[in-house]
Amino acid sequence: MIRSFIAKNKFIAAAILLSLLASCQLSIKPETLYGKWKYIKIENNSVANTANVTPEQLEAESPYIKFSKDSLLIWWGGKVLSHGSYKIDGDRIQFKEILDGGKTRDFPFIVSKLDDKNLVFATKGDDGAKVTAIKEN
Fold first, then answer.
1. 127 found inside a domain
2. What was the pLDDT predicted at 137?
3. Boundaries of domain holding 112
4. Mapping DSSP to helix (H, G, I), strand (E, B) and coil, where does residue 62 land?
5. What is the rounded radius of gyration, in angstroms, for the C-alpha atoms of the chain?
6. Please, are residues 84 and 70 in contact by the beta-carbon 8 Å criterion?
7. How far is CA 128 from the centre of its chain?
8. What is the reported pTM?
């Protein structure tokens, strides 16, 4: 009887903990994302390249990312670095980049912070990075 009570309570506690963790996951609201976000910090996550982008480089290149209802544009050094479409999936922005020749490449931006003024996201892979950006009016 006691074993049954303990087993049931462990199950209930685990179910409560899982539901709390699931409710804490960031959910991106598209309206908050729309607009131009100026990069203020870039930290490389790559094993091959551990050097971060300096504040001087960011000032000179003026990078930003711009979200509209159905498209995304990344600007770097006075020109478009990347563009394509995106979909929101929980805490991820699933980016479909349009490459030369009409080819595409899919990869996620994992968002760890998003509010009316701040956006922090990371990319994975060989050239992964964590980007901190502020919203411009």
1. yes
2. 75
3. 29-136
4. coil
5. 20
6. no
7. 11
8. 0.77
